[in-house]
Design goal:
The chain has 347 residues and is mostly beta strands. Helix content is 2%, strand content 41%. It is built from one helix and 31 strands. The strands form nine sheets. The chain has a nine-stranded antiparallel sheet with strand order 11-12-13-14-31-25-24-17-22, with no helix packed on it. The chain has a five-stranded antiparallel sheet with strand order 1-2-3-4-5, with no helix packed on it. A hairpin with a 3-residue loop joins strand 11 and strand 12. The longest helix is centred in the last third of the chain and has 6 residues. The radius of gyration is 19 Å and the shape is globular. It starts with a strand and ends with a strand.
C-alpha cells in the first residue's frame, strides 16, 4: 500500500507559479496542499457510505487566497493568534508588530504573514514539506528564521502536520494551521449540529479584544465545558460573558496533562454524514473557533460560505503568552528550536 503524490499548476502569484500537491491513499482519502501559504486547500474524506467529500472550506484558485480574510486552510506564522498591544519585550528589547485587530496584533500580519508567502516545496514518499525563510525584523519579529511544515498522509486516514522552526535570535514562534472543517462537506452549511469533545478541563478566559486575562479557569459548570461530547450549537447563543465578547466560541482550551508528547485532544463528529475526526497534538493549547466571523463570500465550487459554516481547531501555544509568564513559553531561538506535531485522523 502506497501513498500517491501528484502536482499541478494552481495559478500564478506575483509572476511566480503556484503548485497544488495531491496526496492520496487507497481508502479514497485525498489531501491537496499548496506552496502558497502552505495551505490545506482540499481534503476529501469518505462518509459512512464510503462517499468522499471535501470537508474543508477554501477557494478554487491561488489568486483568491491572496484575499482570504478568514485564513481558510492557512499556515499562520511566525505568530498565530493575538499579541496584546501589538508589542512585546524579550531580554529588555521592545518589538512592535502590526496593529491589525483593534489595538492588538492578530496572526502576525494580514499581507506579509507566512500564509501569503510562497514556500519552497519538496515531496517525499508520503509527504510534502514546505519551507519558508524570514529575515530579522520582518513584520517586527526579531531573528533570521526558518520554518518547515510537513504534511504526511497515512493509510489509516491520518493527516499529520509536523512543524520545525529555528531562529538566530530569541523570537516568538507559534505557528498553527487555520483550516475550517465541516464534516458534512464544505458546502453543507452550518457546523452547529456537529458534536465536539475537548480533552481540556480548563480554558483561558479573555477580555475585550480576545486577549487572555492570564487566568486558567475550570470549564466545569459553564458553557465552555466540552469534556463530554456536546453539540456545538447547544449553548453558543447563551448569555455568558465569554461568548458575548467573541460572538460565540473563539477561545483557547488548555490540554489536560500536557507534557509535550503526542496525545488526543479533541474529537469532532458529524451525525449527519457519520464522519468523525480525532485531533492529536504535542502542543499545550487548542483554539476552538466556531467560525463566528466568516463574512458571506463565495468559496470552492461556487459554495456560499457564511457565519459558522466551518470550525477551526488550531493547536498552539496560548494566545498572548509572551505577556503571561505563567503560560508555557512561545519564545524560541538561540538554541531552543520549535518542534510540534498535530494529527487529524478520520473515520
Amino acid at each position: 500500500m502506497a501513498i500517491s503524490i501528484a502536482k499541478r499548476k494552481f495559478g500564478d502569484v506575483q509572476g511566480r507559479e503556484v503548485t497544488l500537491f495531491t496526496l492520496e491513499n487507497e481508502n479514497g482519502m485525498r489531501a491537496e496542499v499548496t506552496d502558497l501559504g502552505a495551505i490545506l486547500v482540499n481534503l476529501y474524506v469518505p462518509d459512512r457510505e464510503g462517499r468522499a467529500e471535501d470537508v474543508v472550506l477554501g477557494f478554487d484558485s491561488a489568486a483568491e487566497y491572496l484575499g482570504n480574510g478568514s485564513f481558510f486552510g492557512a499556515t499562520i506564522g511566525p505568530s498565530a493568534n493575538r499579541v496584546g498591544g501589538a508589542r512585546f519585550e524579550i531580554d529588555g528589547v521592545t518589538y512592535t508588530l502590526d496593529v491589525n485587530d483593534g489595538p492588538n496584533n492578530l496572526h502576525s500580519h494580514m499581507d506579509k504573514g507566512y500564509h501569503k508567502q510562497l514556500w519552497e516545496a519538496e515531496t517525499g514518499e508520503d509527504c510534502v514539506t514546505f519551507t519558508v525563510r524570514d529575515t530579522d525584523g520582518n513584520m517586527g519579529f526579531p531573528g533570521n528564521k526558518e520554518l518547515r511544515v510537513t504534511y504526511t498522509l497515512d493509510e489509516n486516514n491520518g493527516l499529520s502536520l509536523h512543524y520545525h522552526g529555528v531562529s538566530d535570535k530569541k523570537t516568538i514562534l507559534n505557528p498553527t494551521n487555520h483550516t475550517y472543517f465541516n464534516l458534512n462537506g464544505h458546502k453543507s452549511g452550518s457546523i452547529e449540529g456537529h458534536q465536539l469533545q475537548l480533552l481540556a478541563s480548563h480554558y483561558t478566559p479573555v477580555v475585550e479584544g480576545a486577549i487572555p486575562t492570564g487566568d486558567i479557569t475550570e470549564v466545569a459548570g459553564t458553557v465552555m465545558d466540552f469534556t463530554l461530547p456536546k453539540t456545538v450549537g447547544k449553548e453558543i447563543g447563551e448569555n455568558f460573558d465569554q461568548l458575548l465578547l467573541t460572538q460565540g466560541y473563539d477561545h483557547n482550551w488548555v490540554v489536560d496533562g500536557w507534557d509535550g508528547s503526542l496525545r488526543q485532544i479533541a474529537v469532532l463528529t458529524a451525525p449527519e454524514s457519520g464522519r468523525r475526526m480525532t485531533v492529536s497534538s504535542t502542543l499545550p493549547g487548542v483554539q476552538f473557533y466556531a467560525g463566528n466571523c466568516i463574512t458571506p463570500q463565495t468559496g470552492k465550487d461556487g459554495a456560499a460560505y457564511k457565519k459558522r459554516d466551518g470550525l477551526c481547531l488550531e493547536t498552539q501555544y496560548f494566545p498572548d503568552s509572551i505577556h503571561q509568564p505563567q503560560f508555557p513559553s512561545c519564545v524560541f531561538g538561540e538554541g531552543r528550536e520549535y518542534d510540534s506535531t498535530t494529527v487529524y485522523r478520520f473515520e
